[in-house]
Amino acid sequence: MARKKDAPAPPPSEARGGYTVLELHVQAVKRIKAVAIEALPPAGTVEIAGRNGQGKSSALDAILMALGGKGAAPAKPIRDGETTAKETVVLQDAQGCPAFRVTRTFTAQGSYLKVQRATGEEIRSPQEFLDRLVGAGLGFDPLAFVRERPAEQVRLLLDVLKLERDPRELDAERKRLFEERTQVNRDVKRVEAQLEGIPVVDAPAEEVSIAGLTTEHGRLTEQDKAATRARSAWEEAGREYDRCLAERARLAKALEDIEAAAREAGAEVLRRAEAMAKTPPPDFTEISRRMIEAEEINAAVRLRREREAAATELGHHAEAAHILTEQIRAIEEEQRALLEGAAFPVPGLGFEEISGEWGVTYQRIPLEQIADSEKIRVGMAMAMALTPSLRVALIREGSLLDETSRQVVDTMARAGAFQVWLEVVGDGGAEAFVIEDGGVLRAPGRLRATTAPPPW
User: Were both Cys, which of 43, 66, 179, 436 would link to 441 (CB 3.0–4.6 Å)?
Assistant: First the structure.
């Protein structure tokens, strides 16, 4: 909350242990007629007892209503049959000296607040002053803390620790990196299996040019076609020559013409023979061997390249997995350092994600699973940590605590300079304030209580 210029800060004595309640005066608030409780010790347990409906809860509520502002008051704070109500809380420092007097008056028109120092000086902007004094811990119930939802327990614990970073965010980042590394490791295993299935071959780095060999093969094919055509032409010329000779024999009388034709055909045979001699049929043996060899070489080259690519991919994935592992390790180290340096209210207290939900743990055990005595210790420690200035806790269901648990509460309160108001059903112990019909029926012999209106 922003501080106004005319709102004075709590005095330096706050740093010496904070404040507890010295006196409580209540008149016509909820079920209370008139109650005055005075001379309370700075630390320990204040037991408020009584039957249900007699006003003991109203006594605890009065503390909240006096200090907590309009939001702490119910819709109907004034006792039935009355027109005004008033409550005064006198706060004492750790040495038992009066420090502040807080008076809140309720009327039909609203509530009115006055805060005075022990010297009588009135504090300007009193509610803002109280808000800074009590903070978020006003009315904190240690038992209510252990019954809170895990998420709310974590929020309250983080409020106490005031860490530079939220460990839950670090854990979410660690999970994201862990999942990413898991996927990368799957790629590593996939490529490793692929690499194992590719044999190691001795092959050149580049494939043989099939296109060049194909061009040469085409040239030889055309040459072979030309040689075939030359042979066919030669064979045709031979057949023509034979026909001419036969014709010459049959047509003796046309011998001269046939001889001329024979001479011409003979000349043609010579020409074709010369052409055939110039175009011999090619030898395909060498080129066929080279093409087969090229396919084998190229298959080996492709295999080599496939293996090299798989090895390169494996290296990339392995490096990515290593980087992610280092990032996860760095986050885990940051989490460890963050939590080791945190001032937890109780040694062994922490928080972690369990079954998908963050919760507070004690000795790595979820809070709801620890022993009741440990729950009380944790709740008390949290109450004291959440209320460093106003060191007051209100336990509404004190009847649920056995004698040992109450002793734990009282011991921790005294050791921590803390004051616990314990509401119980029944007559209470020898040190209890017993509330009946809106007034104090019985008070401890060493303290004073009255049902008469206080002299304000």
Answer: 436
